[in-house]
Amino acid sequence: MVGNIEPKKIVILGGGTAGWMAANVMIKAWGQYGFDITLIESPDIGIVGVGEGSTPTLKTFMDSIGLEEKDWMPACNATYKLGIRFEGWSTRPGFPSYFHPFPAQLDDFTAPAFLHNSLARRNGHDVEGHPDSFFLNSYMAEQKLSPFAGENFPFTVLYGYHFDSGLLGQYLAEIARQRGVQHVQTKIVDTKVSADGLIESVVDGDGRSFEADYFVDCTGFRSALLQGALQVPFVSFAENLFNDAAVVLPTPRPEEVAPQTVSTTLKNGWAWTIPLTSRIGNGYVYSSKYTTADEAEKELRNFTGVGDSTEVEARHLKMKVGRVEKHWAGNCVAVGLSQGFIEPLEATALQLVFDTIQNFVIALESGNFTTEKRDGFNAGVNGLFDGVRDYIVAHYLMNSRTDTDYWRDNANNDKLSRSLYDIISAWTDSKNLTDELRRQKIEHLYPTISWHCLLGGYGIYPAKEGLKAGGMGKHQVKVNEIQEFIRRCSLNYAPHMQALEP
Ligand SMILES: Cc1cc2nc3c(=O)[nH]c(=O)nc-3n(C[C@H](O)[C@H](O)[C@H](O)COP(=O)(O)OP(=O)(O)OC[C@H]3O[C@@H](n4cnc5c(N)ncnc54)[C@H](O)[C@@H]3O)c2cc1C
């Protein structure tokens, strides 16, 4: 028994990354208490097979289930990631690109200077307002350094990973099976739902029936149980996130790789460049309203230098962007693409997967499945999705490319949530943005540094010509000294390639 909960039978439907992450978290939490956990997947349907970047939450997930980097990283061709570089989103002079860093402990010393300067610059003072001058991770990514320093320099740097998503799924599957998850390969063709909206069983093509107390829908964009059998409505984000398709292709890996994802704008979307130990993953995320799949593939081929080579095959994918109204309905919780997807600009999908599973584990262990408890869970997960959406929408809204309808329409999009509208107003009205995030109680979604980096990184400041010389008040930030401090700190960290050696 966990608390006063009797062992339950759980069926996870779907064996993509979301399904195997759920299986691992659940067997770790409940295997010892006699819970019976079965994962069913259809080899005919297959997995989406993309998604190669993470936030630091993937490290939290790996640590929580006791997997070590020295084992899983080489098996998944993984590299470290210190953040994301955004190239070409802004045409404002002095702001052609910026780096969104994952937090580092040493930011405590440099971030206040950046926040101070960005407020001064918004108030018309001619001071350095570009985030790249202030953050250790930005500098380290550029210098191709790893997040690891010697013992005499005990300052941590948060990091995520790049990985081969197919290999990661296989690795997690193997671990989950070893730990006691039952694995059934078959296609589910029918779902039995009771009159009061609970799933009783799922049934395969041979008539085999799988019953359970709880069903976890990890069936990808199909969402066979939650949106299919239980008919939970889908809330589309299409009106402010235009991208609905992607094309992907690999290129060879150069000798050294920087620990960063690069996101570069193309004509009708953006391209990711993700370094693995085995190859570079490239993908163009675009809107099918503005360009065709053929045109997008051609543009990506030119961008990556692959050209017309028939040796490199491109894969095309469709994306359904939005979220379900409720992630948990009756005895079914959806995890992964089945619960929703926000395009991969900040690589947040697996973070949302882990957050959802963790919240479900906590809710189940606390018992008493009242409507109130389910509503609380759903409101919490919806808040996570909507918060990520707003941050992604801000990228598009702040772009200043004017060369295509796609970018112009994005910049002119007025379908903003109240929350995003208030954040942007606080920035442009030269108010304290941290206070605004606190007022909205949303700092846990994206912290103030992330918002400052985005808005400062795109150069959302008054025109340079009208700025007054010098800083705000008597507090002048000595940017040269901050850069020297960052440079000296970075000397303690090992090269990225060295950290990747097995
Ligand atoms: C273009 C693109 C880029 C992305 N980039 C990132 C990124 O950088 N970072 C990130 O975190 N995420 C990213 N993602 C999201 C990421 O790929 C997914 O969140 C992740 O792979 C989890 O997918 P899934 O397990 O939910 O679904 P899938 O991988 O689609 O798995 C679905 C599973 O359900 C099974 N199934 C379906 N129906 C049935 C049935 N009837 N019977 C039995 N089995 C069934 C299938 O066989 C499969 O095993 C990206 C997604 C896209 C589309």
Description:
36% of the residues lie in helices and 21% in strands. It is of the alpha/beta class and 502 residues long. The strands form seven sheets. It has a seven-stranded mixed sheet with strand order 5-4-16-17-18-15-19. A six-stranded mixed sheet has the order 9-2-1-13-22-21. Helix 1 (17-30) packs parallel to helix 9 (349-365) and helix 9 packs antiparallel against helix 10. The longest helix is centred in the C-terminal third of the chain and has 28 residues, at 371-398. It is globular and about 75 Å long. The model has no long low-confidence stretch (mean pLDDT 95). The structure holds flavin-adenine dinucleotide. The site of flavin-adenine dinucleotide has 38 residues, from helix 1, strand 2 and helix 9.
Quaternary class:
single chain
Tell me the number of helical segments per DSSP (H or I, 4 or more residues long).
16
Percent strand equals 15-25%
How far is the N terminus from the C terminus? Answer: 41 Å
Structural class, by secondary structure, is alpha/beta
- Biggest sheet layout: 7 strands, mixed
Proportion of residues in helical segments:
25-40%
Tell me the radius of gyration: 23 Å
Name every ligand kind in the structure. Answer: flavin-adenine dinucleotide
Give the mean pLDDT. Answer: 95
Catalogue the unreliable spans. Answer: none
Query: How many E-type strands?
Result: 25
Strand order of the largest sheet: 5-4-16-17-18-15-19
What's the overall geometry?
globular
